[in-house]
Amino acid sequence: MTSSLNAYLVVAGLLFAIGFFGVLLRRNILVIYMCLELMLTASNLALVTFSRFNNTMDGSLFVFFIITVAAAEVAVGLAIIVALYRKRHSVMSDELTSLSH
Amino acid sequence: MNASAFSVFAENNQWSVLWPEISLGLIALILLLLDCFLPKDKRSFVPGLAVFLQGGLFLAVSVFFIESRGMDAFYAFNGLIYMSSFGSLLRAFFLLSSLLVSYLALVYFKKQPLPRTEFFHVMLIVTAAMMLLVQSAHFVMFFVALETVTIGFYVLVAYCRTSAFSLEAGLKYLILGALSSALLLFGIVLLYGVAGNPELPAFTQDSMSFLSLQTFIENNAHNALVQLGVLLVISGVAFKIGAVPFQIWIPDVYQGAPTPVTAFLAVASKTAGFMVLLNLIQGPFASMEYLLKPLLSAVAVVTILFGNMAALSQQNLKRLMGLSGVAHAGYLLVGVVAAFHVHWAPLAVLFYLITYLLGSFAVFGVMAHVAGEQDEAQELSDYQDLAQRNTTLASVLTMGLGSLAGIPPLVGFIGKVLLFIAAFRAELYTLLGVSILGVVISIYYYFGWMREAFFRSWHAPQEAPVAAIPLSGVHVFILGLLAMLTLLLGLFQNVLGWALF
Predict the structure, then answer these.
(1) A8 in a domain, yes or no?
(2) Domain of A7?
């Protein structure tokens, strides 16, 4: 029982780490965005695992809230990315340097 | 679960206690409906209506606070919401700041051809979410309210969608904000998982509520997963308040965002972050003092020094306000650390935030009037001869900056003194020394700005005189009121003292 809990958590932790380092290292904003979503998904996986092994329902319910929040975040985020692309014709993060002195 | 348990649940769902938040949501929806169904030429009164309704709600909430002062705090919605008179005061605070942001927005929209109603809609939703955030006592409520605030701010920061600067600021805030939310969320998940583990002492079935977590963490303060979870949650909150090392977004986002949004971020978002931090370290994380006290102290020292040093050489005023705001966050963190030992330190933090609200909005109000069409390019040199172009603006600017710098007899001085006394009582002498050093450094750039407005006026006689900035009576009244409040509250603090202590 415990060993499989660890297996799930290792997968969730790996997903989270991949997402985190992806955000830090990648240059394409869309890929960065995917990595952000990956981090939220990792949290969801961990939540469901804990919910199952601790026998409480809060975690599984919380997942729905997180999915909703993630959807709202994607909607706003993609709108901003599209609007910025129309202005700048680029989605590379290292070209976004107009705001620095 | 049987029927009687459900009826207990239902009785605890007291929707009526959330009337300010619900009213704000309704006002926001009404604005949107008016914008949809009114013909185009009749929509001009909508922003005025938004300001009027908010003003009414602010009065109602203030009266409610005065009436209910000293009432017993209680949990509503089965422990999702913690209602206290402190929470009511914070509601009034957030409404006041949204009211002042609306004023700045009205000034801003005179210069920018942008749709107006949506701005007020999103702003009201964000205000309501902040009210819920500071009163939440459960991690689900906490996370949803926090994300409502954050996502609302993504929209507001990128609101000027004709400007690449605003969009870029919005994108930067979006990516870093989402990153910090994900860290915070993973922290919540770890705490939830470890607190529900039946093999640990004092495990709990309700492992997301602050109360049960507090008992659990008291018994397992040295568990590695608990430590990691607490660190992740604190770093998510540190992003909101702009503490080092999570301050990288501040200069860019403050510069690119429309001026009213910059003010909203600086005052309301920071206040929400600090109140959440205080809720956490006095509630669930109280027994993590051994870890959090050295950590937050170190962060406070670096934040104060970084904010002040980086602000020294700034020429762009919105970046200057952002970086000096980082320094203010550092002073406030000193108050938060003091809250581990001094029971009235949270009130000193709120007092400081009220003084910060008055000073900042005075300065941002002047900035909104002086700004040209390029909202992101507000340079120090634009303020040359301000005293000759408009004496009122220059005086209000002086009062606001003086209050932010902490010059007696303005109210900012009292706020700093209270924080420093709290730090002294808590025996945080290093932090106290660093804060005083920070205040001394900050006088350089605040007074540099004043000097630009007053004393840079050497002109050759043949040169054309600078254009005056026209200012109508309403604006003089509002800005003058803010300036007078910084002075009067600096001389007579009894009103605020009565409300807080």
Answers:
(1) yes
(2) 2-90
The first and second tokens of residue B176, run together, are 């870093």
| ipTM for the assembly | 0.94
Orientation of helix B139-157 relative to helix B164-195, angle to 10°: 170
Domain count, chain A: 1
CATH number at A30 reads 1.10.287.3510
Q: Provide the number of structural domains found in chain B.
A: 1
First to last CA, chain A: 56
Write out chain A residues lying below 8 Å of B256, CB-based: 99
Residue A76 lies in a domain: yes
Which among B140, B169, B198 has CB closest to A65?
B140
pTM of the model: 0.94
A54: contact with B, CB 8 A cutoff: yes
Mean pLDDT by 10 residues, chain B (501 residues): 72 84 95 89 86 95 87 86 90 95 93 90 96 94 96 95 90 94 95 90 87 91 92 94 91 94 95 95 92 95 95 92 95 95 92 95 94 84 85 93 92 93 94 95 93 75 69 90 92 78 66
Structure tokens given for B445? 């750039």
Q: Tell whether A96 is covered by a domain.
A: no
- Report if residue A50 sits inside a domain: yes
DSSP H stretches of helix in B136-163: 139-157
Contacting residues of A for B193, CB less than 8 Å apart: 9, 46-47, 49-50, 54, 59
Of all helices (H) and strands (E), which one includes residue B344? none
Contact A39 B164 (CB under 8 A): no
Range of the domain at B249: 8-500
